[in-house]
């Protein structure tokens, strides 16, 4: 469980590190993820203090950080994603997720693009 939590936190940090140099949208997602990790680690550490033997529950800090990373990334994506925007010609465009099917050999694989961040 500890390995999964650590790998999830590491993956979240590595996957969003490149967005730190991006425009405002990528920076917002990155900062929200970092704040989520810090908040989750603090909450996990505080919860270990509520047990009789805190040393036996130190994995809660990692789990809290991983949950915070996912929560912060999701919040950052929600915060920066506009469902409607005006284009250069003044026309209203709605950003709705579209299901696409990609050809993978003899089968079709469905996929949905949920987030597009400009780098």
Please tell me about this protein's structure:
The protein is of the alpha+beta class and 119 residues long. It has one domain. Helix content is 53%, strand content 15%. The chain contains 3 helices and 4 strands. The chain has helices spanning 2-17, 24-48, 59-80; strands at 84-86, 92-94, 99-104, 107-112. The strands form 2 sheets. Strands 1-2 form a two-stranded antiparallel sheet. It has a two-stranded antiparallel ribbon with strand order 3-4. A hairpin with a 5-residue loop joins strand 1 (84-86) and strand 2 (92-94). Helix 1 (2-17) packs antiparallel against helix 2.
Summarize the structure.
This protein has 119 residues and is an alpha+beta fold. Helices cover 53% and strands 15% of the residues.
Number of strand segments: 4
Please indicate the count of domains.
1
Strand line-up in the sheet with most strands: 1-2
Q: Which H/E pattern describes the elements? A: HHHEEEE
What is the SS-derived class? alpha+beta
Biggest sheet layout: 2 strands, antiparallel
Helix content: 40-55%
Write the layout of secondary structure elements.
Layout: H1 2-17, H2 24-48, H3 59-80, E1 84-86, E2 92-94, E3 99-104, E4 107-112
Antiparallel strand pairs: 1-2, 3-4
Helix pairs in contact: 1-2, 1-3, 2-3
């Amino acid at each position: 469980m500890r390995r999964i939590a650590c790998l999830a936190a590491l993956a979240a940090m590595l996957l969003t590190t490149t967005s730190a140099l991006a425009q405002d949208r990528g920076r917002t997602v990155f900062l929200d993820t970092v704040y989520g990790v810090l908040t989750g680690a603090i909450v996990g550490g505080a919860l270990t203090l509520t047990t009789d033997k805190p040393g036996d529950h130190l994995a809660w800090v990692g789990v809290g950080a991983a949950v915070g990373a996912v929560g912060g990334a999701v919040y950052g994506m929600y915060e920066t994603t506009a469902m409607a925007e005006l284009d250069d010609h003044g026309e209203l465009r709605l950003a709705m997720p579209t299901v696409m099917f990609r050809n993978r050999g003899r089968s079709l694989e469905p996929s949905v693009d949920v987030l597009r961040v400009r780098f």
